[in-house]
Write a structure and sequence with these properties.
Elements: H1 8-15, H2 21-31, H3 35-53, H4 64-71, E1 100-103, E2 106-110, E3 118-124, E4 133-135, E5 139-145, E6 147-150, E7 153-156, E8 160-161, E9 172-173, E10 179-185, E11 188-190, H5 192-201
Antiparallel strand pairs: 1-2, 2-3, 3-10, 4-11, 5-8, 5-10, 6-7, 6-9
Length: 202
Amino acid sequence: MIQHHPTEQTLLAYATGTLPEALAIVTATHLAKCRLCQSALGTLEATGGVLIDELSPVPLSGDALDRLFARTGESASLPPPVLHPELPAPLNRVALGRWWPVGIGVRYRPLQTAGAAWGGLILAQPGRSLPKHGHKGRELTCILAGSFADGSGHYQAGDLSEPVTDHDVPPTVTGHEPCLCIIASEGMHLRGLLGRVQRLIG
């Protein structure tokens, strides 16, 4: 049972296409599993459609009809191929880099996306924690397998974490299985020794 969901503001940004690509991929991963958020998204999209219908008409350019007819012969674009069949949709169609160690028992695999936010897979072994860190903007994490806990609660497969404060209590893997997550952030500042290294390298 999914217990944690994106905020209404994040769902609205997703519905209007204003979320950075990495954050949108994390949100879409949660949506693929969550009927509650699928329903909420449908309501937001329907509301947007009503608002568009109420806008005043805008004159078309003189060649609009010719350009439309010129495109009728174009073939429909195909969905991107499945690159990672071991991952759930939509992650199975997203380009990923190689795995990198980021600490004892923790590995990171970056998403190859455009936009201001960065993202990637994190695989952490039981009992391992991510570093203490703060946020510069939104951070979204969707759990694919396993579970973790932090100062705001306990998260299991399908849950989406959207912290509103810094991680004074770092996310720590719970249970006896590794935790696999997809994470995206608009900016993260590490604390302690890692934070000093981060500031040195920029």
